[in-house]
Design a protein that fits this description.
About 30% of the residues lie in helices and about 25% in strands. It is α/β, with parallel strands linked by helices and about 120 residues long. The C terminus is likely disordered.
Length: about 120
């Protein structure tokens, strides 16, 4: 049975709910497919940014992005707290949740699962 490492980032708003319900679907699919998930939750979102690093230009530091890159996939809820407007670049995307040198990318849309290209 194969095991896949999944980073969970609930983010803001309905993001944690999206992940909670989506995990149920993913667990059911894994059971049918004969695979397992190894989940690891991360606190990243506007609340975390406001509490620990307000004023920094990105949601995630480079070393945090590198850690996410060690997972097989990143399951991302949503980012979009109005208190964190400066987190968004001119195109409206989160400046900390884009493709980086770790070859892991995430999408700002709710309920997106972006798989790392490292495998």
């Amino acid at each position: 049975m194969s095991t896949y490492s999944i980073a969970l980032i609930g983010g803001d708003g309905i993001g944690p709910e999206i992940l909670r319900e989506g995990k149920k679907v993913m667990d059911a699919a894994a059971e049918v497919a004969g695979i397992t998930w190894q989940w690891k939750e991360y606190p990243y979102g506007a609340e975390h940014w406001l509490q620990y690093r307000k004023g920094e230009p990105t949601l995630l530091r480079e070393e945090e992005m590198a850690e996410l890159g060690t997972h097989d996939a990143v399951y991302f809820g949503s980012v979009g707290d109005p208190r964190g407007r400066s987190l968004l670049d001119r195109r409206g995307r989160s400046s900390g949740c884009a493709s980086t040198s770790t070859n892991t990318s995430t999408c700002g849309r709710p309920n997106s699962c972006a798989v790392s290209s490292r495998r």
